Amino acid sequence: MASFGFWEPIIIFSLLNLIFTAGLYITALSGQLSMATAAFGGIGGYVSAVLTTNFDWPFLPAIAAAALAGAVLGGLLAALTIRMRDFILKLTTLAFGEAMAVIAFNIPYLGGANGFSGIPLYTTMTDIVIAALLAIYIAWRFDGSRLGFASRAVRDDPLAASANGVSIRQTRIITFMLGSAIICAGGALAAHYVLLVTPSQMGFYYSLNYIIFLLFGGLQVLWGPLLASVLLTAAPEVLRFTSEYRLILYGLIIVMVVLWRPDGLLTRKKGEGSALNPLGPRAPDPLT
Amino acid sequence: MRQITRRFGGLVAVSDVSFSVERNRVLSIVGPNGAGKTTLFNLISGVIRADRGSVQFDGQDVTGWEPDRLTRLGLARTFQNVRLFPHLDALENVMIGRFCRTRSQVWDAVLCLPRDRAERRQSRERAAELLDWVGIGHSRFRLPAELPYGEQRRVEIARALASEPSLLILDEPTQGMVAREAHDVMHLIGRLVERGLTLMMVEHNMNVVMSVSDRIVVLDFGQKIAEGPPAEIRADPRVIAAYLGAEA
C-alpha cells in the first residue's frame, strides 16, 4: 500500500482505536461498561509478542492466540461478575485491569516495568485496514443478530429480559468474550507496530479513552463509537497547529457533544425502526 | 397435557398459599393492596425464590428455576408497570420474545449462515403477526415512549406471546386504564383463551375479574381466604369483609 507520510501513524492509530472501540461496543451491548479495555489490549500484545519473539510463531497464529486468550479471560471475568450491576460491575472491571497491569509489571519474563521489547515489526497499513474492516463486519453482524438484540434487552432491563426468556448469563458471557477477543487481537496488531508492550499502557488512564469514544459516539448505534474513535484519535493531531491549546480544544469538543447530544453523536431515530437491523427499514441518514 | 398445579408457602408476604389452575382456564387472584398478589406472581415466575413450598408446572417441579428457563418451558408474564425495552421499537421488543425459540449463535450471525438468515426473517414475521393480532400493527416501528399506555400493554402481551407460552401471567392488565380500554383488554383476554392459553391474572377491576375468570382466588395478608367460581366469590362473606374491613 502507498505511503501516507505524516498521516500514516495517525491513520494506523485511528484504526487501532477503532478496533478497540468495536470490541468495547460489543462488551457494553449487554450493559457491562468495561473499564479494562487497555488491559485486554495489553494482554493481547503480550501474548502475541511472546509467541512471535520467543517461540518464533508466525504472525497470524499469534494474533489468533491473542484473540483466544481474550475470549477466555473475558468469559472468566463475565462469569465472575454475572450477579453484579452497574457501579460494582464497573469497579470490578477497573480492578481487573489494574491487577493485570500489576501482574505484568511483576513478571521479569515480560520485561517488568520496562515492558516487552524486541518484537518483530509485522503490522502493515494493509493489515490494519483489513483488520479494521473485519472488526467492523463482525461487530455489525453481531449487533443485528438475535444475540445482539437480546444483549440490548438485558442492558435496558435485565429483569424483563430474563422474564422473556433471555439468559442474562449467556448474553453477558458471549458479549464479553467476543468483545475481549476483538480487543486482544487489536492489541496484538498494535504490539507489532509499536514494537513495545508495557504494563503502564494497560492502566485505567488508557481505558478511559475508549469509554470516551463509546459515550461520545453513543451506545445505541455501532457507527457512533466507531466514528468517534477515528475523529477523536485524529483530532489532537489535526489540532496540532493550535500548539498548547490542542488538548483544551479536544476537551471542549467533548464537552460540547455531551451538552448538545447527551446520548452521543449518533442515536437511533424515533419512529423509524432500527437503523441497524438489516431487516428493518433503514433510516435514510443516521447522521442527525 | 395434564393438569397444572402450583403450591406455595413460606414467605411472610405470601403464607402457605396453595392453588392450581387447569389448562385453558382463567384464574384470577384478587385481594386488597398489599395482600401479596404480585409477590405470588414473582414467586411463580422465578423472579424471587420461595422460602418454603413448591411450584409445579405441567407435572414438573420448577421451584427455584430462573425466569428465562421457565419461559423456555412455556411460562410467560407481563408486569404490573409495563416493562418494555425503551431503546427497542415495538417490533424489536416482540422479537425479543422469540429469543428462546431461536438457536443461531455468534458464528451463524458472523458467517451469514442460512440458520441466522432464516431465523431473523421468521422472528420478524412472527413478531409482526403478533402485533397485528393484538391490534397495533401500525405502531410497529414506534419506540415504547411514543406509544399510549394501552398500546404499550399490548406490545408487552405480544412479546409474551412470542415465546409461545402455554401459561400466561398478567399482572394487573387494566391498571391505569379508562373503562373503554379495560373493555378492550377483556375482549383480548377472551381471544387469548381461544388461542388455547391458560391465564393467571391479578386484577383490581372487578367487572373484568367477574366476567373473564373461571376461578378466583382471594388473598388477604398473604393468606388465601377464599377460592371458587365468580358467583360463589361474589357472595362469600369473608371476601366482602376483607374488602370492606367489616367483621364477618
What series of H and E elements makes up the topology of chain A?
HHHHEHHHHEHHH
Strand content of chain A: under 5%
Q: Largest chain interface and its two residue counts?
A: A-B, 39 and 49 residues
The largest sheet of chain B is: 6 strands, mixed
Number of helices of chain A: 11
**Total strand count of chain B, please?**
10
CATH class of the largest domain in chain B: Alpha Beta
Spatial strand sequence of the major β-sheet of chain B: 6-7-8-3-9-10
Q: What do the pLDDT scores of chain B average to?
A: 86
Task: Tell the overall outline of chain A.
Answer: globular
Report the sheet with the most strands of chain A, covering strand number, pairing sense and barrel closure. Answer: 2 strands, antiparallel
Q: If you compute it from the alpha carbons, what radius of gyration of chain B comes out, rounded to the nearest whole angstrom? A: 19 Å
Runs of chain B with pLDDT <50, length 5+? none
Q: What is the strand arrangement across the widest sheet of chain A?
A: 1-2
Distance between the termini of chain A: 34 Å
What would you say this structure looks like, in words?
The complex is a heterodimer of chains A (288) and B (248). The C terminus of chain A is likely disordered. Chain A has 288 residues and is mainly alpha-helical. Chain A has eleven helices and two strands. Helices cover 67% and strands 1% of the residues of chain A. Chain A has a domain of 195 residues. In chain A, helix 1 packs parallel to helix 5, helix 9 packs across helix 10 and helix 10 runs antiparallel to helix 11. A two-stranded antiparallel sheet of chain A has the order 1-2. By secondary structure, chain B is of the alpha/beta class. Chain B contains ten helices and ten strands. In chain B, helix 3 packs across helix 5, helix 3 packs parallel to helix 6 and helix 5 crosses helix 6. Chain B folds into two domains: 158 residues, P-loop containing nucleotide triphosphate hydrolases (Rossmann fold), CATH 3.40.50.300; 81 residues, no CATH class. The model of chain B has no long low-confidence stretch (mean pLDDT 86). In chain B, the strands form three sheets. In chain B, strands 6-7-8-3-9-10 form a six-stranded mixed beta sheet, sandwiched between helices. Chain B has a two-stranded antiparallel sheet with strand order 1-2. A two-stranded antiparallel sheet of chain B has the order 4-5. Chains A and B meet through helix 5, helix 6, helix 7 and helix 8 of A and helix 2, helix 3, helix 4 and helix 5 of B.
